[in-house]
Design brief:
It is a single chain. By secondary structure, this protein is an alpha/beta fold. Among the domains are: about 90 residues, Gyrase A, domain 2 (2-Layer Sandwich), CATH 3.30.1360.70; about 110 residues, no CATH class; about 45 residues, no CATH class; about 170 residues, Isoleucyl-tRNA Synthetase, Domain 1 (Orthogonal Bundle), CATH 1.10.730. About 55% of the residues lie in helices and about 10% in strands. α6 packs across α10, α8 crosses α11 and α20 runs parallel beside α22. It is globular, with a radius of gyration of 30 Å. About 40% of the residues are buried.
């Protein structure tokens, strides 16, 4: 039952009766009562005082008395200034809990039940370097949003666009060719993406040295950057690649395959996957035909230097070049072609979401506006899931200088930190080594994922590995431990819970009532997170639930409770709490252990 709708119907009937109004249930504005006041829901009385011809307090008293008369599920009310705080009866909340506890998939809608297909792009790595901390946030955010959208019954197609061509790729290729001496992942013992990333850094070091030499000879820095022999060679290599030179293509394929093998391992560790992977080498020419069609329709125009552009000043955007004067495409040209190709390939898709950092905000405004002007109705349903950068206590990261936090090193470090913390607790001595290793991975990766996902995507964040692994506070391990603790209680109960009866006349402890109310909120939290593409709502809700369980458990005995009806209710209550914690965390891509 939607309690807010049920209450709104009662309130609209009351104010219409009392004040001769024509208020509809959807016009009634309710909010959850603030913790410092008694009540479940709060009504602001100010919209009704003119018709009531009473003070805000007297208006609240009149509405409170009338709704109590109309609906026996309303147990008490109180008025604080112009706010009417409404409390629902214990029997009402117990009825809600019966529905919650009987649903094994509580909060999760059946797969593909909405009839809506959404395509979601995330990851989008370059094949000149391994994944780093910034990619970790991108992957975890994209995967979590996809999982949350699935809880709403949407069919989600997860796609990756790999940037496998361009001057940056040629830099790694050239450096390996010049300095590599035939080094391979096998001969070096390095993951393929790490090996290629090593040569990207080597290029930058040698390139900077050349610039320094040229500037010391009197050349301007700008000219030195263009004329440095390494940059000239890299540009020549790019031209050879675009011309299909067999030797260049062979080298490109070999090094890219090293990277793909490395990415595969990293993605498995992160626990993310894709339904379809696109490659820029296959898509970078797609937009040229689109530009030609747009020229014919008068959407684009040719400039004096032969480049093709679109004027978006009427849309509060600038002029945008879509083809260079030499006929080559720019980044947005590819994005136009790829978007159109995807909608052709997946005709049922009604929405496209791009998970890309906030430095590309303007790019996506332009992309969506051009698609709209080209006549694609679905362009209005395209969305840029923009997120802030991740920084470390030491500051920003730079790929070219090799100062990034490598994703593999970070993940391995988190698992190692989890091992140290868990072994120090002395609670897993009876575990087999395989069980221990699985637990360390679950805790370490849970800590990493939760710490990143609990932050609103739009915000820049500071990642602190030590803080993330703490068993206390707003962390993944804290929530995981609450789940494991509940599972331990249920194992010790050692009886089937399926047939336990929830009696309608038991007294609810304050913490039991709060737990039931918070469990009731779970479907709405998932629904809102899916609408706003914000996993932090689910993360922080799950933390609040774990925290409230701990408060409940310290005040309400479960197995030692002498009253049989109360004990059975509490068993069902913690069972449902564990289920919601598990489903909340799984919607973020985080596993929870049965034992910890």
């Amino acid at each position: 039952m939607n309690i807010e709708h049920f209450l709104s119907k009662t309130i609209s009937a009351a104010v219409n009766q009392l004040f001769t109004l024509n208020t509809k249930p959807e016009d009634v504005i309710l909010q959850k009562t603030k913790k410092e006041f008694e009540g479940d829901f709060t009504l602001v009385t100010f919209p009704y005082i003119k018709a009531a011809k009473l003070s805000p307090e007297k208006t609240g008293e009149a509405i409170g008395e009338e709704i109590s008369r109309l609906n026996s599920d309303i147990s008490t009310y109180n008025v604080v200034k112009g706010f009417l705080n409404i409390s629902l009866s214990t029997s009402f909340w117990l009825k809600q809990f019966k529905t919650i506890s009987a649903d094994a998939h509580y909060g999760i809608k059946p797969a593909n039940s909405s009839g809506k297909q959404i395509m979601l792009e995330y990851s989008s790595p370059n094949t000149n370097k391994p994944l780093h901390l910034g990619h970790v946030r991108n992957n975890l955010l994209g995967y979590a949003v996809a999982s949350i959208l699935k809880t709403q019954g949407h069919d989600v197609v997860k796609v990756n666009l790999v940037n496998d061509r361009g001057i940056h790729i040629c830099k790694s290729m050239l450096a390996w060719k010049l300095f590599g001496n035939g080094e391979t992942p096998e001969s070096s013992g390095l993951k393929g993406d790490h090996l290629v990333g090593k040569y990207y850094v080597e290029f930058d070091k040698a390139y900077k040295k050349e610039i320094q030499e040229l500037t010391s000879q009197g050349m301007s820095k700008e000219n030195a950057e263009k004329q440095a022999p390494l940059m000239v060679q890299a540009q020549e290599m790019l031209l050879k690649w675009e011309a299909g030179d067999p030797e260049t293509i062979k080298l490109w394929k070999m090094m890219n395959n090293w990277v793909y093998d490395g990415f595969k391992v990293s993605y498995q560790k992160l626990g993310v996957e894709f339904d379809k992977t696109y490659y820029e080498s296959n898509t970078y020419l797609l937009g040229k035909e689109v530009v030609q069609e747009g020229l014919e329709k008068g959407i684009f125009y040719k400039k004096e230097n032969n480049s093709v552009a679109i004027d978006l000043s009427a849309d509060k955007l600038d002029e945008k070049i879509v083809l260079r004067s030499d006929g080559t495409s720019v980044y947005i040209t590819q994005d136009l072609g790829t978007a159109i190709e995807r909608f052709k390939e997946y005709p049922k898709t009604s929405q496209m979401i791009y998970t890309v950092g906030n430095e590309q905000d303007y790019h996506f405004k332009v992309l969506f506006k051009i698609l709209e002007k080209l006549g694609y109705d679905w362009a209005k349903e395209c969305y840029h899931l923009s997120y802030g950068m991740v920084e470390l206590p030491e500051g920003k990261m730079k790929s070219r200088e090799g100062t990034v936090v490598d994703a593999d090193d970070l993940m391995d470090g988190m698992v190692e930190a989890a091992r140290e913390v868990t072994e120090a607790s002395g609670k897993i001595d009876s575990f087999s080594q395989e069980e221990k290793d699985t637990l360390f991975t679950t805790i370490g990766m849970g800590a990493l994922k939760y710490f990143i996902l609990k932050v609103d995507p739009k915000k820049k964040m500071l990642f602190d590995p030590k803080e993330s692994i703490d068993l206390q506070g707003n962390t993944g391990p804290f929530i995981q431990y609450a789940h494991a603790r509940i599972k331990s209680i249920l194992r010790n109960y050692n009886k089937p819970t399926k047939d336990l009866v929830i009696e309608a006349n038991i007294h609810l402890h304050e913490k039991e009532r709060e737990l039931v109310k918070l469990l009731y909120d779970f479907p709405k939290v998932l629904e809102e997170a899916a609408k706003t593409y914000n996993p932090s709502d689910v993360a922080n809700y799950t933390y609040e639930l774990a925290k409230l369980f701990n408060q409940f458990f310290s005040e309400c005995p479960v197995l030692k409770e002498e009253n049989n009806a109360v004990r059975e209710f509490r068993i069902k209550l913690i069972e449902s709490t564990a289920l919601v914690i598990k489903n909340g965390m799984l919607s973020l891509g985080i596993e929870v252990p049965e034992r910890m």
